User: Fold these one by one.
Assistant:
Number 1:
Amino acid sequence: MKKSLILAMMALVMASCSAKDPKVLVTYFSASGTTKSLSQDLAAATGADLFEIEGAQPYTAEDVNLGNREARAFKEMADKSFRPELKESPKNLKSYDVVYIGFPIWGDAAPNIIYTFIEKNDLKGKTVIIFSTSGSSNLTNSFNKLKEQYPDLNLVEGTTLKRNPTPEARQAVIDKLKAAIPAK
Ligand SMILES: Cc1cc2nc3c(=O)[nH]c(=O)nc-3n(C[C@H](O)[C@H](O)[C@H](O)COP(=O)(O)O)c2cc1C
């Protein structure tokens, strides 16, 4: 009895030593700041590192001018196979267990640069939690398009932050995204 109790206690101690927290990276693309601000708060809430996905050619306000159908964003949305170049990729991606990818929804899909990011970085074996900000669209269609394109990745549907949220709604998004991190 005494011996089995000691063995059980040793097993507990060993388990707690090996159960380390997963290493988390929040990556995001943001053309006008909304996804950036959410990503910063998410990284703070999860103790994650932060990486901004940027175009080699930066996105200007005119590039995302909704009043101009000739704007860069609309041209990119019209050519699903176009892959805008990245400014850079995250260092030490290998060391992360969980990678969030956040973006503004463009035309009910992830912007093309998110596809570039996924194709230029090795995310196999990691938990990849997808999230977004949007005017009113839900994440599901954008998520399903990614899932269809990259069936071998472990993509997890997070949620979207819709325009003009109450502080409670914003916090609920952060809480939901935080809860999506699997226990290691
Ligand atoms: C080109 C373009 C297309 C958009 N398409 C959608 C859309 O399909 N659904 C939606 O709800 N919002 C859409 N939006 C609104 C953005 O998703 C929303 O403003 C987002 O929060 C912007 O994020 P950012 O400031 O990080 O760039 C679109 C915005 C742009 C510029």
Note: The beta strands are 24-28, 49-52, 98-104, 127-134, 154-162.
Number 2:
Amino acid sequence: MRGIFGYRVLLAPMAGVTDVAFRALCREQGADMAFTEMVSAKGLSFANEKTRHLLALAPGEDRVAVQLFGHEPAVMAREAAWIEDEMGDALAYLDVNMGCPARKIVSKGDGSALMREPELAAAIVAAVKGAVVHPVTVKFRRGWAEGDETAPEFARRMEAAGADGCAVHGRYALQLYRGSADWGAIARVRAAVAMPVVGNGDVRRGADAARMAAETGCDAVMIARGAEGNPWLFSQVRAALSGEEEPAAPTVAERIAMARRHARLLEQREGRNIVRMRKHAMWYLAGLPGAAAARGRLNYCTAPEDFDAVFDDLLAIAAAHDAGAQAACAAGAPDEGRGGGDAARSL
Ligand SMILES: Cc1cc2nc3c(=O)[nH]c(=O)nc-3n(C[C@H](O)[C@H](O)[C@H](O)COP(=O)(O)O)c2cc1C
């Protein structure tokens, strides 16, 4: 893979997920670059504090890409220039969201609604491109309506409008997250344009990334849901892309240790109220013995110690579970019901 602006393995933008703490852990595990949560151009133009907070970086953080959503070319261009000024060298590139299918986004003409308005989409790309020196990319889907694959033609138009690259999620907008991503669509976009093309959709393990690269010819691989509670996926993907053996799945203790670090990093940024850790914690713990009961408790956690108490208990349950499994093995019984690793994640 030749990479997009030198990056091969990317953390996708995920609203409500790709905060500063999660980005740090994914970068540490091998993501070459990480997206912030998407930001509203309109929100930035009103100097909305919440919107600006989404762009706050950790000290020393770099290789951050920012995705804007909106539909007004002049507003998008002005805010892109503002982001560039604010972020300076930390900014890897700017992206325009043309793939989000959420009703509250699409109903305003933003996100994947722009795939139905290619002229407006092209005007946005041209305006943003004219306002910044960093590369500008577009992230979109296979098409709007199921069965009507417009992505290759759409990519050509965006490239003609000045886009420096694109990311393609191989589902239709109306498909939301149903079914599976069609990587053939990524290959067809790859064949349609000269600019770098990032493949996205359903990379859950290292081997998936290697297969996506081989089947589509994409220049980089972008990962979203597979990394939730699982930053290790990036080290697995890197190994698979280099033809090396993938590192082993993390142990229960490693998963809990990562969850604790995540909570600490969030505390450093957000203070003692780290409610947003709840969903991350559920992902880290998914499938571990005792996780189902822990879910209910996590819903009441707000401070770091609240989360620690749940993590301590799960660690103890896992230790008891392991001791039980070992005893059973020693007695010649089959090792049934053992949690952890990939099996746990699929629960
Ligand atoms: C919780 C969540 C939030 C997302 N937010 C965004 C977003 O802000 N911008 C965007 O372009 N895509 C967003 N996506 C889509 C992902 O970036 C990605 O395209 C999609 O999940 C497919 O990749 P995956 O199979 O690796 O998850 C989001 C997905 C999820 C699950």
Note: The radius of gyration is 21 Å.
